[in-house]
């Protein structure tokens, strides 16, 4: 799938958009805090093909092939802001029937988008998302920062993000390790999520407990189900791709057959 830099409300974002299935929803993929469109590998196209849905994958500002972020300083509501940018992308491409698939930060942005723009979102798949900050999350970010400082992680990230790596890592770690972010919480938004929700989480997720799952699915207004995978960590779609793919296909087909 070919992508290009698109101007979205003044932001230069790398976007891949495949619109080959008429009158079908578009699955929009939202990457994690160090991720990119490329790092999803072939998972999005496999899900698109299996469900006969259109597909949009993009790099958030400061990631992958998108233009750099203007500063590493982030506000507490930075993911809420990203949900508004996603809405701008949907408006730019005139997409009004959407299934969201987000991982980690991307999953949180998906939840926020579903709550703020319910008229566009048909269903949401939330993989390893966060609705509040836990001690295990802070420890996970600290461990990632240490790996960045002591291993070849910078070189591995550079392959996908080029010279944007230092600012990207600083932006992510600084906000999540700050004292002011400990109070961040989006539970108040969950009641506004009306679409069907699937929450996927590895039981051994090093960034969050199953509390994230239970508190999310118990507070949304639409139907909600969970898929907890034993012995799997923070990236189920990479650690057990077939399992996640099959469950996602089942969920999406079910949504389309009942609407």
From TrEMBL:
Domain AB hydrolase-1 residues, every copy: 25-129
SUPFAM superfamilies linked to this entry: alpha/beta-Hydrolases (SSF53474)
Source species, domain of life: Bacteria
InterPro entries: AB_hydrolase_1, AB_hydrolase_fold
Protein name: Pimeloyl-ACP methyl ester carboxylesterase
Organism of this sequence: Chryseobacterium geocarposphaerae
């Amino acid at each position: 799938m070919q992508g290009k830099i698109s101007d979205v409300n003044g932001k230069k974002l790398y976007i891949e958009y495949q619109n080959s299935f008429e009158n079908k929803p578009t699955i929009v993929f939202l990457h994690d805090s160090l991720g990119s469109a490329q790092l999803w590998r072939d998972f999005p196209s496999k899900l698109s093909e299996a469900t006969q849905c259109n597909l949009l994958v993009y790099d958030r500002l400061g990631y992958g092939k998108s233009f750099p972020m203007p500063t590493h300083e982030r506000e507490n509501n930075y993911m809420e802001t990203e949900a508004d940018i996603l809405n701008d992308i949907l408006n730019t491409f005139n997409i009004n029937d959407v299934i969201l698939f987000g991982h980690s930060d991307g999953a949180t942005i998906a939840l926020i988008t579903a709550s703020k723009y319910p008229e566009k979102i048909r269903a949401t798949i939330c993989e390893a998302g966060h609705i509040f900050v836990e001690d295990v999350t802070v420890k996970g970010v600290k461990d990632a920062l240490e790996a960045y400082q002591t291993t070849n992680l910078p070189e591995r990230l550079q392959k996908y993000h080029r010279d944007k790596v230092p600012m990207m890592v600083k932006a992510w770690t600084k906000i999540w390790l700050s004292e002011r972010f400990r109070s961040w919480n989006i539970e108040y938004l969950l009641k506004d999520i009306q679409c069907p929700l699937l929450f996927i989480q590895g039981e051994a997720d090093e960034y969050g407990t199953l509390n994230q799952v239970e508190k999310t699915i118990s507070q949304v207004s639409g139907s909600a189900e969970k898929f907890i995978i034993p012995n799997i960590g923070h990236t189920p779609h990479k650690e057990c791709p077939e399992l996640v793919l099959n469950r996602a296909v089942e969920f999406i087909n079910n949504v389309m057959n009942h609407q």
